[in-house]
Design brief:
This protein has 255 residues and is α+β, with helices and mostly antiparallel strands. Helix content is 31%, strand content 27%. It contains 7 helices and 10 strands. It has an 8-stranded antiparallel barrel with strand order 2-4-3-10-6-9-7-5. A two-stranded antiparallel ribbon has the order 1-8. Helix 1 runs parallel beside helix 4, helix 2 runs antiparallel to helix 4 and helix 6 crosses helix 7. About 9% of the residues have low confidence.
Length: 255
């Protein structure tokens, strides 16, 4: 995995990763979930078409060379500029040690056809959170991703609240709706967690569902709702969200 990412991203795009591990302030009570390597590309203004064609050429080369790496390339739908997010699953950190000869064969294409159209790239690694996330794989082509930057003093409360809320929802017979990830690496402005909520399409976002705090109040009472809601809010320093759509032409989610 390391060399796959290196040849597509680091060598080809000239990116130097400076990852800083988050402090282990939150106790690990669940088995470790798999990792995900993620790189966010900000495309130069007016260069989106060239970037897309470059990735298509690299993908065609990689498949022709029988590469076995799989990835998803998502395009952000809101916010400043044109942004794509490359996401690839890893079973563990050891995958970063693997080499990828197929990636080596195509690195010149990435260097000449992709790199010139990228303004900035930021890479990090996240870990899937078992127990509080959906157990079925993500298959939808649209996701809303909420990012959570923890408060330095009360940040530990976030996962405590999430686990208790999910427990209440499960007791009420409600299925878990999304996927939680904890950031393992990142810069000073990186969040600590993010939550992925999948949708079939934009129309699916118009379907009104019972809000989380409504469920808590209905099944655990208003006092418990107020308690958990206050703890949740106190745990956060900042939060934001974006919608992303899967670019199928530029992705290879499975072999």
């Amino acid at each position: 995995m390391k060399n796959r990412v290196n040849y597509l991203i680091i060598l080809s795009l000239g990116i130097v990763l400076n990852w800083t591990f988050l402090s282990a302030s939150i106790a690990q009570t669940e088995p470790l979930g798999p990792l995900m390597s993620v790189t966010e590309f900000t495309i130069k203004p007016g260069h989106e078409m060239q970037f897309r064609e470059g990735v298509k050429a690299w993908k065609a080369c990689y498949l022709q060379n029988k590469g076995d790496w799989t990835w998803r390339l998502w395009q952000r739908q809101q916010g400043e500029g044109s942004v794509f997010v490359l996401a690839s699953d890893m079973a563990n950190w050891a995958e970063m040690d693997k080499t990828d000869e197929s990636g080596k064969s195509c690195q010149d294409l990435a260097r000449t056809l992709i790199n010139p159209h990228i303004e900035k790239a930021t890479s990090h690694v996240t870990r899937f959170q078992l127990g509080i996330s959906k157990t079925t794989p993500l298959t939808e082509d649209m996701i809303r991703v909420s990012f959570y930057d923890l408060d330095p003093q009360n940040g530990h409360k976030l996962m405590e609240v999430v686990k208790e809320v999910e427990g209440i929802r499960k007791s009420a017979g409600l299925a878990t709706r999304g996927y939680w990830y904890q950031w393992q690496t990142g810069g000073p402005e990186s969040p600590s967690f993010h939550h992925v909520l999948p949708f079939k399409d934009y129309a699916a976002m118009d379907i009104i569902q019972e809000a989380v705090w409504q469920t808590v109040e209905k099944n655990a009472g208003k006092a418990k709702r107020d308690e958990l809601q206050a703890a949740f809010r106190s745990s956060l320093q900042n939060t934001w969200n974006y919608i992303y759509t899967l670019d199928k032409d530029l992705s290879r989610p499975s072999k």
